[in-house]
Amino acid sequence: MELYHLRTFVTVAEEGNLSRAAQRLHLSQPAVSAHVKTLEEELGVGLFLRTARGMELTPSGSRLARTARDALQRAQDMLHQARSLRDRITGDVRVTRNTDSGYLRLPALLQSLSDNHPQALVHVDCCDSYAVAERLKAGAMHAGFAYGDFRDDPSVTALPLAMASVRVVGPPQWAERLSAASVADLASMPWIWFHPGCPFVGMAERLLAEEGQRPRTAAVINDEHTIRALVASGQGLSLLREDLALHAPLGEQLAVWPGGALGLPISLVALTRRMEEPEVKALMDAAAVAWGLDAGAGSQ
């Protein structure tokens, strides 16, 4: 007994006519008639009375039609369940963060993952933005948060989440000095600098380009919170996200140069060739939910 025999049986029972059933099933009328005959022979009972008005169910056919409908529904339910199990993650999901979890909305992302994939085990590691692409290519993770523009690298796909507002910041006691500072004045002051691969380097260099040289470096730091602490202690200027500069719980509010904010993209990045993998799709979808992006943005 085949499912398509049951489907034909139920359709003929509903239509009461071989021709209409054939149209509905996109089959020829002889094929529909052959399905019914094969099922009757296999079951050993007559399912229909063939009358001038069409096909009428026999008493046995009427009872068996209900059973056939139930069987088709159970088969459909099984198919949906199998698809759900296929798409549901039951193993490890690895993602890296490049900055603080609150800014990245990691709690909301993890909640979304838990809601949709309760058996997934999520691993969150730290990775600087400049190292994300390398670690993705090494297979160390499914996706990673990163600052910067990845459009020139076709091997990775980035889900844009926001544009971070980055400001030139200085020690609180330099507030008056910074308020009237020109770019030349900024270049003359000591700076807390960045790892060569950090996207903040390019931003700072473009800002100070008219001076033709990198300013005096007080330290090279690879961590935003350490940069903030050193700036607050009077070591020099630096670039920081505006929310980090002004966030009181992190310490005394820093002085902010009024010359304007610099924009820096923040994205969730994955290898292009792995975008269809369930773990990557789940992370992208969860990030889209956490950041309030349009439905389906994570799967594009």
TrEMBL record:
GO molecular function, one term: transcription cis-regulatory region binding
DNA-binding keyword on record: yes
Domain of life, source organism: Bacteria
Coiled coil location: none
Family: Belongs to the LysR transcriptional regulatory family.
Organism expressing this protein natively: Fundidesulfovibrio putealis
Protein keywords: DNA-binding, Transcription, Transcription regulation
Matches recorded under InterPro entries: LysR_HTH_N (IPR000847), LysR_subst-bd (IPR005119), WH-like_DNA-bd_sf (IPR036388), WH_DNA-bd_sf (IPR036390)
PROSITE patterns assigned: HTH_LYSR
Name of the molecule in the record: LysR family transcriptional regulator
CDD domains with a match to the protein in the record: PBP2_LTTR_substrate
UniProt-listed PANTHER family: HTH-TYPE TRANSCRIPTIONAL REGULATOR, HTH-TYPE TRANSCRIPTIONAL REGULATOR GLTR
Domain HTH lysR-type stretches: 1-58
Transcription is among the record's keywords: yes
